[in-house]
Amino acid sequence: MTLEQLRIFVAVAEREHLTRAAAALRLTPSAVSAAVHALETRYGVVLFHRVGRRIELSETGRVFLIEAKATLASARTAELALSELAGLKRGMLTIQASQTIASYWLPPFLVAFKVAYPAIDVVLREDNSAGVTQAVLAGTADLGFLEGDIDAPALLVVTVAHDRLVIVAALDHPLAKRRQVKPQDLANASWILREVGSGTRAMFETAMRAQSIDPTMLTVTLELPTNEAVCAAARAGPHLTVVSELVARPHLDARRLTLIPLDLDTRAFSLIRHKERYRTKAAQAFEAMLPDFRDAWSGGGI
Asked: How far apart are CA 65 and CA 62, in angstroms?
């Protein structure tokens, strides 16, 4: 079994599609198919079920996927350790961040990092907070950035910024002209929200409970997977939505949306990393560029 075979298997398993996996790996479909077939033949197992023109992971394949990802993460760590013997003249930094942070807060820091370390390849992946946590735990991301709190004892967590959630709506929404809204107004409203698992959704539900509103009793017309999608949907109908002030600001300035007058608590933007995994020099260099980062680690995390 080779690392290349493992990479191919993981790519196919994540997509459950040979052609898409081949495109992502820049290989021919026949090469990808041959690698999977070689694994199955060598070990006498069925990793995928062929259902018509589709493929699906078998139960054996699901179990093996966990081990394959762990092996690749370990191999990547070893490779990074060797490549960094030459300092920051080469290497890679993989960051996974929740949508708001990836789109609105991180980019200036990524640009500054690339100017300072042009030979380091930077990969930024976007996911909700639950996905970011899982990526750092699994070792597929060096650093993670997310909103709010997490419960993961294996991770170190530090606050690197603060953000405020705001409620917005279309300009002609019935609550748009109010100088003040009551909890009952929110409870009676129609909402368009981010998906469960996003930091924005979790913080919104906490804020509603603080207003003595049970979030499970709200009328949620749509759940959408992106900030821009919820803003666009709110512009199209009589619905409220909640987003980061960073996300809302361009829409408010352009008068595409209006602010609903209710103060919500601020939330933390947190950096997370694994307590025990190898900490690359690239990751250390990026951490050092963040505002007040070293003061925030006064407990000795650095």
From this structure: 5
Decide: helix, strand or coil at residue 70: helix
Distance CA 136, CA 145 (A): 10
Segment 92-135, tens digit of pLDDT? 899 999 988 999 999 999 999 999 989 888 999 999 888 899 99
Cβ 38 vs Cβ 5: under 8 Å: yes
d(CA 128, CA 194): 10
CA distance 276 to 155: 8
Q: Which two tokens stand for residue 137?
A: 């735990």
Per-residue pLDDT at 294: 45
pTM exceeds cut of 0.70:
no
Q: How far is 231 from 169, CA to CA, in rounded Å?
A: 8
In order of their start, the domains of the chain are: 1-69 (1.10.10.10), 162-267 (3.40.190.290)
